[in-house]
Design a protein that fits this description.
The chain has helices at residues 27-43, 91-114; strands at residues 16-21, 49-60, 64-75, 78-87. By secondary structure, the protein is α+β, with helices and mostly antiparallel strands. A four-stranded mixed β-sheet has the order 1-2-3-4, with helices on one face. The longest helix has 24 residues, at 91-114. The protein is globular, with a radius of gyration of 18 Å. The termini are far apart.
C-alpha cells in the first residue's frame, strides 16, 4: 500500500494504534511513532495493522527509566512482534531502536515470503 496525498502531507493507509502505559501521552512521542510507522508503511505495502505500546517501569534516578516499546505488525499470514526494552533517559532512542528492529524483522519476513531464505536441513553426521 502506498501513501496517499500531495507533496505537503502524506497519509498512512495502515491503521495505527498507539497506547501509553505508566507514562502520560505525549504529542512528541506520538509524532515520532507516526513518522517511523509511515516509513514502515512505505517500506512494505503489505502491513494490515500496526499497534505500538510505550511503557515505563521503575524510576531509577541514577540508571534512567526502563522503557519498553512493543510493536505488533499484522501482515498477510503472520504477526510480527517486536518488544524492545532499554534503560535510557530518552524514550525517543528506544522508539528508534524498536522501529529499526521492526524493519529488520519485516525484511526477514519478506525474504521468507519470496523464498529467498534457504532452510538448512539437519546435519546428518554424528560425533
Amino acid at each position: 500500500m502506498q501513501p496517499i496525498g500531495n507533496l505537503d502531507k502524506i497519509i498512512m493507509i495502515i491503521p495505527l494504534h498507539i497506547t501509553f502505559l505508566n507514562i502520560p501521552p505525549s504529542d512528541a512521542i506520538e509524532a515520532e511513532i507516526r513518522k517511523r510507522a509511515e516509513k514502515l508503511d512505505q517500506f512494505s505495502g503489505h502491513i494490515v495493522h500496526c499497534r505500538v505500546t510505550v511503557d515505563v517501569a521503575g524510576k531509577h534516578k541514577h540508571q534512567g527509566r526502563l522503557y519498553e516499546v512493543r510493536i505488533d505488525l499484522t501482515v498477510p499470514g503472520a504477526e510480527i512482534v517486536i518488544s524492545h526494552e532499554h534503560r535510557n533517559e530518552d524514550v525517543l532512542v528506544v522508539i528508534r531502536d524498536a522501529f529499526e528492529a521492526a524493519i529488520r524483522k519485516l525484511e526477514d519476513h519478506i525474504r521468507c515470503q519470496r523464498g529467498d531464505v534457504k532452510i538448512h536441513e539437519g546435519h546428518a553426521g554424528g560425533a
